[in-house]
Amino acid sequence: LTAEVVAIPAEDWEDARTFDAVLLDAPCTATGTFRRNPEVLRATKPAEVAKLADVQHRLLDAAAERVAPGGRLVYCTCSLEREEGETQIIAFLRRNPAFRTVAADP
Description:
Blueprint: E1 19-25, H1 39-43, H2 46-64, E2 67-76, H3 86-95
Parallel strand pairs: 1-2
């Protein structure tokens, strides 16, 4: 297995290639880390959730363009916020009907 790591804003990456698998580890509010970082729950504001959800929306759409036909797009965050998880994926699937959810293989 080989991998190429590209550290550039997704909207700025000009590359026509598509890939069998794309992993999007999206920036998020990190509310899922509250056991180790309890301050994150007090620090997270609704406006911040909305701002990050917008970034995730754009990143998901950019990542989808990189997935080859029959390929996989894996989206992950460490957030417990619905706007960054379930709601984000429902909206993505409505915008991108060629994609569907599948159960993760253990």
